[in-house]
């Protein structure tokens, strides 16, 4: 007789949510005083995105947010993480806020609260005002100070009603995909500029955290969302371990070193000394960056597998971060990325929940006592409606089940994980991949913009309602 299956239950206070970002869903790019961001410019540049697609309309959340919030409520979500469009609030990245731009977010927050859904604001999800990029972008120190002013404006407008805040989303992508490999906006390919951008994003986080605290109630939680990587090696050979050290420094230490510990890894400075002298790290910067955090957001999709390689090789191309002749890993041309074995999502990313467990346990050690949230986790599949208009996505259910089980296992192992935001609430503009990759729990017909919850949305709603993972079917 088989052993009875013990239900996997989560703490009663666990926060169940979903996440989006402004440029991917809002549309209305020329309404309410909004001016172009770097993603408007990049996506309208021929050859930069799949099919030349862009976010001009996206899924029209700007006009349809009441419908979308009602759908969140129907699905029983306890929280919704969204980002603010900087150029909607502050069109040139400088000066006073445009109130009509802030009003959209005020209305959205009020709508969420009226349905009992906790809003969680991300201030920066990659859409720098084009005016600031024209002035040099993130490689310029001034951009960090402009971000702090912007953070203060949004904090003043929403801080009385929004308790959960994130300064930056995945600064690694901003710095290294935007300024090194060029597969993300603004599409630059300058290794030193990417490292300067990383430092100034760190500085923006520290200055922004201080700015938020100056205008918001002390009860509010301030965090950052990092796409930290679980880096593994093909062997224990010292050369392979050294390769993993390089990638770990560039994927993780370059951000969590200053943010959590007030210092860059010495191994990072050494590995990149042929590219930059780091003279843009000024006296006092590390103290400004190293602000106490109330929580840490972690975004996870797949682990990395590396080994040593010939520095004359073609460079890392199996890293899952888009095709480019330029590497997003400055100073790591002697590192080879390998496709990790196992089943893959439509993105070509291997499904491996153990990487999420390992990441949570790492940050439990790295920042003891700091609450953790999964601020993004999810999968893209080639979802299509059946003849009755229903969208069945059993692969996504299996993906979510495995990763939620990994979260629960980490909690049992001592990780203080407070919540989980599935990426994404609905299908949307997936950056350089255009509209081909569908991450949503809600299917969007891009011709009509009709929303249809997928079977994974119903499954997730039941998990959120009960706080219990059902047995694997």
TrEMBL record:
Keyword match Hydrolase: yes
Gene Ontology terms for molecular function: beta-glucosidase activity
Keywords associated with the record: Carbohydrate metabolism, Cellulose degradation, Glycosidase, Hydrolase, Polysaccharide degradation
SUPFAM superfamilies: (Trans)glycosidases (SSF51445)
E.C. number(s) listed in UniProt: 3.2.1.21
Reaction(s) catalysed (UniProt annotation): Hydrolysis of terminal, non-reducing beta-D-glucosyl residues with release of beta-D-glucose
Superkingdom, taxonomy of origin: Bacteria
Active site: 376
PROSITE patterns xrefs: GLYCOSYL_HYDROL_F1_1 (PS00572), GLYCOSYL_HYDROL_F1_2 (PS00653)
Class of enzymatic activity (EC top level): hydrolase
InterPro entries: GH, GH_1_N_CS, Glyco_hydro_1, Glyco_hydro_1_AS, Glyco_hydro_1_beta-glucosidase
Entry similarity comment: Belongs to the glycosyl hydrolase 1 family.
Stated name of the protein: Beta-glucosidase
Organism from which the protein derives: Streptomyces bluensis
């Amino acid at each position: 007789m088989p052993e009875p299956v013990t239900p996997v239950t989560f703490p009663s206070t666990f926060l169940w949510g979903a996440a989006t970002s402004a440029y991917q869903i809002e549309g209305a790019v020329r309404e309410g005083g909004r001016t172009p961001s770097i993603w408007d410019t990049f996506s309208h540049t021929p050859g930069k995105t799949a099919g030349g697609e862009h976010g001009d309309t996206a899924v029209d959340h700007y006009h349809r947010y009441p419908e979308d919030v009602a759908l969140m409520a129907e699905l029983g979500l306890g929280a919704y993480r969204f980002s603010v469009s900087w150029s909607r609030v502050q069109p040139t990245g400088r000066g006073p806020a445009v109130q009509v731009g802030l009003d959209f977010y005020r209305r959205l927050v009020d709508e969420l609260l009226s349905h009992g859904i906790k809003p969680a604001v991300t201030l920066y999800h990659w859409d720098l005002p084009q005016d600031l990029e024209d002035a040099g972008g993130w490689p310029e120190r001034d951009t960090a100070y402009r971000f702090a002013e912007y953070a203060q404006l949004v904090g003043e407008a929403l801080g009385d009603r929004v308790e959960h805040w994130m300064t930056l989303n995945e600064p690694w992508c901003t710095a290294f995909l935007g300024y090194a490999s060029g597969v993300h906006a603004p599409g630059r390919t300058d290794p030193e500029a990417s490292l300067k951008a990383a430092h100034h994003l760190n500085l923006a986080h520290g200055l922004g955290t201080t700015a938020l605290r100056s205008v918001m109630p002390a009860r509010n939680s301030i965090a950052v969302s990092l796409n930290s990587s679980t880096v593994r090696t093909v062997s224990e050979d010292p050369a392979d371990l050294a390769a993993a050290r390089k990638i770990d420094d560039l994927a993780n230490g370059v951000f969590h070193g200053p943010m959590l510990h007030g210092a860059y890894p010495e191994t990072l400075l050494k590995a990149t000394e042929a590219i930059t002298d780091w003279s843009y790290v000024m006296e006092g910067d590390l103290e400004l960056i190293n602000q106490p955090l109330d929580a840490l957001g972690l975004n996870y999709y797949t682990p990395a597998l590396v080994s040593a390689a010939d520095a004359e090789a073609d460079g890392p191309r199996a890293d899952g971060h888009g095709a480019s002749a330029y590497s997003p890993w400055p100073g790591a041309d002697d590192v080879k990325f390998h496709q990790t074995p196992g089943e893959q999502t439509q993105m070509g990313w291997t499904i491996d929940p153990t990487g999420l467990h390992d990441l949570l346990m790492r940050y439990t050690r790295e920042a003891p006592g700091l609450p953790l949230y999964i601020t993004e986790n999810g999968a893209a599949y080639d979802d299509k409606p059946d003849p009755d208009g229903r969208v069945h996505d059993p692969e996504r259910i299996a993906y979510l089940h495995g990763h939620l089980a990994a979260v629960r296992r980490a909690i049992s192992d001592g990780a203080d994980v407070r919540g989980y935001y599935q990426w994404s609430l609905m299908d949307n503009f997936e950056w350089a991949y255009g509209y081909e990759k569908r991450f949503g729990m809600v299917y969007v017909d891009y011709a009509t913009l009709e929303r249809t919850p997928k079977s994974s949305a119903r499954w997730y709603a039941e998990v959120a309602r009960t706080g219990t993972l059902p047995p694997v079917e």
